[in-house]
């Protein structure tokens, strides 16, 4: 059933100064532009975003964002997670019924994927969240705890997310597909406001994965299977890799 009423959709790009592995990452220049500007420019090609804002904890990032023409809001430096930062930023936008959390370190994100996530929420009022996954067959990635895996129901909704290789493959399963979770999220605003008030859940604490809090509270999460496997920038080496791709 299509949801009716307000479809106002806000894209939020969280941009935190204090990345442990890469301080000041959002302002790192790639091909002459700050990383966060590359992400913001990709969002300008989206058809279903009514507005985009950059949510930051640092005035330097705020000033640079305003300098290249973006909306930006300053949020607390004390948020335990990016989702909490998103929820604070949303409070500045009372019209937003849907919120898309666009990773601030993925300068090659496909605008069409962002639109597909928004559409998934617009089209089914029973979905609380939408996210994305890539098919994977790389054994090293499957066994890497830094690569989050997900398993899906036949209707494309998430059954579970884990840092472990899931499912455990005890026997041959010819139609089995393995998926790597891609960390972009779309939320129904009313769900996001509830989510950040719930305490961290047992599975979330065990795996250090916030989306498990949603599943433990019986939320339905739609997972879009995408071929967009654009890499994020966690290290200086990855920044150089992206720069080569952009040239």
Low-confidence stretches: none
SSE string, helix = H, strand = E? EEEHEHEHEHEHEEEHHHEH
Enter the CATH topology name. Spore Coat Polysaccharide Biosynthesis Protein SpsA, Chain A
Q: Which second-level CATH architecture applies?
A: Alpha-Beta Complex
The CATH superfamily name is Spore Coat Polysaccharide Biosynthesis Protein SpsA, Chain A
Count of extended strands: 11
Portion of residues in beta strands equals 15-25%
Structural class: alpha/beta
Distance between the termini: 44 Å
Mean pLDDT: 93
If helices are DSSP runs of H or I spanning 4 or more residues, what is the number of helices?
A: 9
Q: What profile does the largest beta sheet have?
A: 9 strands, mixed
Into which percent range does the helicity of residues fall? 25-40%
* Overall CATH class: Alpha Beta
- The value of Rg in angstroms is 18 Å
Number of domains: 1
Mind explaining what this structure looks like?
- By secondary structure, the protein is of the alpha/beta class.
- It has one domain (9-246): Alpha-Beta Complex (Spore Coat Polysaccharide Biosynthesis Protein SpsA, Chain A).
- Helix content is 30%, strand content 23%.
- The chain has 9 helices and 11 strands.
- It has helices at residues 35-43, 59-67, 82-90, 111-123, 139-143, 189-195, 202-207, 211-216, 236-246, and strands spanning 9-15, 29-30, 33-34, 51-56, 71-74, 98-101, 129-135, 149-152, 158-162, 179-188, 221-225.
- Strands 1, 4, 5, 6, 7, 8, 9, 10 and 11 form a 9-stranded mixed sheet that branches.
- The termini are far apart.
- The mean pLDDT is 93.
């Amino acid at each position: 059933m299509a949801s009716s009423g307000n479809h106002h959709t806000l894209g939020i790009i969280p941009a935190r100064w204090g990345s442990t592995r890469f301080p000041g990452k959002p302002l790192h220049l790639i091909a002459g532009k700050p990383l966060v500007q590359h992400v913001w420019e990709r969002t300008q090609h989206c058809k279903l975003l009514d507005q985009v804002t950059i949510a930051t904890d640092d005035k330097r990032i705020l000033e640079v964002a305003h300098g290249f023409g973006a909306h930006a809001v300053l949020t607390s430096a004390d948020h335990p997670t990016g989702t909490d930062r998103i929820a604070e930023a949303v409070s500045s936008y009372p019209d937003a019924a849907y919120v898309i959390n666009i990773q601030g370190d993925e300068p090659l994100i496909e605008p069409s994927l962002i639109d597909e996530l928004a559409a998934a929420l617009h089209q089914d009022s029973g979905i609380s969240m939408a996210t994305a996954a890539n098919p994977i067959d790389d054994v090293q990635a499957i066994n890497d705890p830094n690569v989050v895996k997900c398993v899906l129901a036949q209707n494309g909704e998430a059954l579970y997310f884990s840092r472990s290789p899931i499912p455990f493959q005890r026997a041959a399963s010819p139609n089995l597909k393995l998926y790597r979770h891609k960390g972009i999220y779309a939320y129904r605003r009313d769900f996001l406001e509830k989510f950040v008030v719930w305490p961290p859940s047992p599975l979330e604490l065990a795996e250090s994965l916030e989306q498990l809090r949603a599943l433990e509270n019986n939320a339905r999460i739609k997972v879009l299977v995408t071929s967009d496997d654009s890499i994020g920038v966690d290290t200086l080496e990855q920044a150089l890799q992206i720069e080569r791709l952009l040239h």
